[in-house]
Amino acid sequence: MRVHVVSDVHGNSSGLAAAGEGADALVCLGDLVLFLDYADHSRGILPDLFGADNARALVELRTARRFEEARDLGRRLWEEVTGAGRSRESVIEAAVRKQYAELFAAFPAPTYATYGNVDIPRLWKEYAGEGVTVLDGQRVEIGGWVFGFVGGGLTSPARTPYEIGDEEYAAKIAAVGEVDVLCTHIPPEVPELCYDTVARRFERGSTALLEAIRATRPRYSLFGHVHQPLARRMRIGATECVNVGHFNATGTPYVLQW
User: Fold this and answer.
1) pLDDT per position as a tens digit, 39-70
2) How many Cβ atoms are within 10 Å of 84's Cβ, its own excluded?
3) Which domains does the chain have, with CATH numbers?
């Protein structure tokens, strides 16, 4: 059995269309939407709306963890593009829908997917066609192994669209229970797995996920979220923990074979 796993697609629909080649199934760990490409400030919803120079300014503020200044700049920019009956929410939703239509059309069958922290879950059911199974706090059997899926991220200063509280996230982890492969968007709360060496900051990991790995001992814990982690893989007890990679940049899936 061969399964390809991707995360942090961020608009890479051309790579996604080829990601399932040679695999029995594709697993996607979320973050389909591209709001802003930190490597190319001309790509994404925000530069499309505000221009590349303003997008670059937002990147610099966020990278410096000057989140309040970034929000102030964002508010000013949004005031310039909204009006005439257009709300910020409606503008974002229209842009996200355009990306989702292209990305979901690129998914091969079968695909098993969960949400990332920049995704908008309520829209997925409109675009996930036949052959795409969306799971969150749920399990599925693939080739005789049980895969558990938990989507989204934890609350953070970045205030991305799908962030939830620690208790709600822990409840989804508990609902999955014992599995062979535990698939999440965010990593377990381990410093080496949570630190982004380019952004030079810690992203939020989950202590509930870490505790579940220690208690239930899945074969694999697969995740994304941290684009340039200090450590891409680590063994925690019997479990191989793997950051499957920043698919937007690499276009290469992680291969799981048994």
Assistant:
1) 888 999 999 999 999 999 988 898 888 989 99
2) 4
3) 2-34+107-257 (3.60.21.10)
